[in-house]
Amino acid sequence: MNSSKRRVTFQAADNTEGIHPTDDQSGFFARGRDFESRYVNHQYTEQEKELLASYESVDYLPSHSHVYENWLKQQPKRLDWDRWVMMGLIGFTTGLVGFLLHQMIGLISTLKWENTQDYLIRSGLPLAWVWATSISLLLVLCGSIMVVILRPSAAGSGLPELIGFLNGTLVRHIFNVKTLAVKFASCICAVSSGLPVGPEGPMIHMGSLIGAGMSQFKSDTLNFDIPFFQRFRNSEDRRNFISAGAAAGVASAFGAPVGGLLFAMEEVSSFWSMKLSWQVFFCCMVSTFTTDLFNSAFHNFKYQGQFGLFKTKSYIIFKVMESLDVNILMFIPTVALGVVGGLLGGLFVFMNLKLARLRRAIIAKAKQQWKKKALKILEPCFIIILFATASVLLPAAFNCSPYSCYLNGEKLSPDSFSPRCLVEETSSQTEIGVSLYTCPPGIVIKDENGSIAFSNKSFNQVATLLFLTGEEAIQHLFSRQTHWEFSYVPLLTVLVLYFTMACWSCGSNISSGLVVPMLFIGALYGRIIGMLLVSMFGVKSDEYWAWMDPGAFALIGAASFFGGVSRLTMSLTVIMMEITNDIQFLLPIMVAIMMAKWVGDFITHPLYHALLEVKCIPFLDAEPVIVYEGKNVNLELFKTRDAMASPVHVLHCKESVSTIAQLLLDTTHGGFPVVRSGSGLHTNQFVGLITSRFHGWLALLHRLNCWRTCATTWHPASSYIGQC
């Protein structure tokens, strides 16, 4: 669009994290800023509008110029076999990166927590705290320095920038090979350090980076240009391969190929087709196959034998071992969980946005660049010191909990060695993999099947949730027939801690995602609601009432909070099915997700779209809300002249270099009409359109006096339309 405004002083390439607007006079709960319904447009300040205007758009449509037409005529008719090959290569590479990421995180996390437990037993709590805090701080410091110093575009999950780019906004540096390397290393450091973050968001960004790089077979950073698949070197094909890479990243991270396809279609991509769906489905299949194949054969890079055997525990990350039948009465607490998920999800998004604005306000007060960078590096370090301290010391405030023995739903005292604990009807109500912390080991008696029949062992409930990775803690919360494994106070304590620290961590300058924290937070309050039912009605062994299991409601709660934050529906439902293999709970999960979405939409925008607004990255919704004179109106009521500026800046078929340069300096337009001098009433005849990013080529061709001869060799991505 034409506008007579001069270029703003902001540079979009250096402000992907947004700015601190000094002209923001809105209150803390002002409507239209952070506290806003999804059905209301975000209100920007004047400075934020200037930053919005500094971005350029990406033209995904073919130019239809003579150059493009000549290039099309020279191309032989071919099938899409090479496109399928490229999708397979992207899927395989993304799956391999996902495997390496998962193994590295597992290796470092295991080393950290095993040594912490060893120090705790041998040397006591102080030395265990020193070890855990030191190793966590070192990892976070390395991850943060890499992001702040080497590649700021690698911070966070990268999803808002990815969504903005695929919508048509040119966001610089997010698809650079340096970003991929820093993203990979920083994500390993962040997740393995114990920060309340996950690797799934960065994995999606890395998948899109692989799609962007492999499809072009060229890199300015690495200084190579391989003449393969040159026909993919256009913005439309590159966009499609980036979408496929993002979907493959989801598939690799979750082991969810169908969920990856739906996630890309529902959340990431703004341009989609049925043909692209088939190709992305294939890409996700290859990605999941690659990750699952290697994860089944290796554990922390140690070969487990039986290569080629897909082990369920390796590729279904939160596999539910005990299936339960759904009862219609179950939908009453399910609806309540959905409402809670929407409310807490909206609160989480609101707090996240406020922390992002506060973070930028504090950094903006630092005048020197080194001080700004120091603040960005120190923030995640401060967070991990607090969280590591809480993870190691907080369990000491809670007493040891004995393993429980049940007979026909009635809890038996573990204090006495009762023979009734050895009968067939008895089942252990505590998992084997809980954390002892400083609790005495006790003794264990197993039955003929190898199951624990009786034990006077004890464990620490808070340590079971904090003394390990987020994924392992979620598995404990999802466990079935463990009704009293956790009590109310430990669950509430960890819920408040994790909710606050996860909200704070996800906006810091380190590569991290939010999927694991969202599932963990939802599982915590879901299990609390499940325990309320058990407290009111008791542990039921009858099949009709078996659905009253805290682990079952932890699963529904995890889905509800994920939906309340992201507002995903189809893709989230399928992902939850694929990561748990619990198809029986399909309907309750769907109900909880829809309720969470409806409630959350009345509080805030979805998290990733709200971050787009905070970072001032332009995004054009498929169904934009148009407000005119205080009323919502239909976009069809407007004409082109209502959006275009006057007078129109034009270019003639032949222009001087100084004229073109001055026009680019004085305007912010993405394209200019090209006119030809006519006779009579039509003094200027419109012959085409040219985009601003190709003015340098035009000026060079004109100065070399090869306008006609050189133009026919241009790349098809050229955007000159028409003829002179």
From TrEMBL:
Alphabetized GO MF terms: chloride transmembrane transporter activity
Subcellular location: Membrane
Chain positions covered by the region annotation Disordered: 1-25
Membrane topology summary: Multi-pass membrane protein
This protein's GO CC annotations: membrane
Record keywords: CBS domain, Membrane, Repeat, Transmembrane, Transmembrane helix
Name of a matching Pfam family: Voltage_CLC
Segments crossing the lipid bilayer: 84-108, 128-150, 241-265, 328-353, 374-398, 486-507, 514-538, 544-565
Keyword RNA-binding: no
SUPFAM superfamilies named among the record's database cross-references: CBS-domain pair (SSF54631), Clc chloride channel (SSF81340)
This protein's name: Chloride channel protein D-like isoform X3
Species in which this protein is naturally found: Acanthaster planci
